[in-house]
Write a structure and sequence with these properties.
By secondary structure, the chain is α+β, with helices and mostly antiparallel strands. It is built from 4 helices and 3 strands, in the order αββααβα. The protein has one domain. It has a 3-stranded antiparallel beta sheet with strand order 1-2-3. It is globular and about 50 Å long.
């Protein structure tokens, strides 16, 4: 139950920030942490880095299907302690996936709102918390799943 609560809370936080950002003007920009983090409004109509932005319906359908499949996997995992890491990783991954899929279905795009002002190409990439949840959850899921393979 704690994993479900964690996923719902993480999704809700990201969704609330997206709602706030959507109310800001198009040229909204605010620097945080001494300028290392920049809040700004960006719409991603495709997948990661606007990949397939002209095929929004395909991206939305694929995202929805993959999220549904991962939800089924999450639900099928036993409540056993040995699956805690895997369930935790999938919970984070699903929190970000649900937030982004909700955007795709409701808006036709994903709201991204922060970038890292660290130089190079990375400063041009705009993320949202859901993206970080997906990345961290995927990493934790992969590391945990790998440990099952060794047993």
């Amino acid at each position: 139950m704690k994993f479900l609560f964690t996923a719902a809370a993480a999704c809700a936080v990201d969704t609330a920030i997206k709602e706030y950002i959507e109310k800001q003007p198009e040229d909204y920009r605010k620097e945080l942490l001494g300028g290392r983090v920049v809040l700004r409004k960006s719409h991603n109509q495709g997948a990661m880095l606007n990949l397939m932005e002209k095929r929004q319906e395909l991206v939305a359908g694929f995202s929805l299907g993959l999220t549904a499949a991962l939800t089924c996997l999450w639900a099928a995992l036993p409540a056993d302690k040995s699956f805690r890491g895997l369930k935790g990783g999938l919970s984070l991954l699903l929190a970000g996936a649900y937030s982004n899929v909700l955007d795709r279905v409701r808006r036709g795009y994903v709201v991204d709102y922060f970038s890292l002002n660290v130089g190079g190409r990375l400063k041009k990439v705009v993320f949202n918390l859901g993206d970080l949840f997906i990345f961290l959850g995927s990493f934790l899921t992969a590391v945990t799943a790998r440990s099952f393979r060794r047993q």
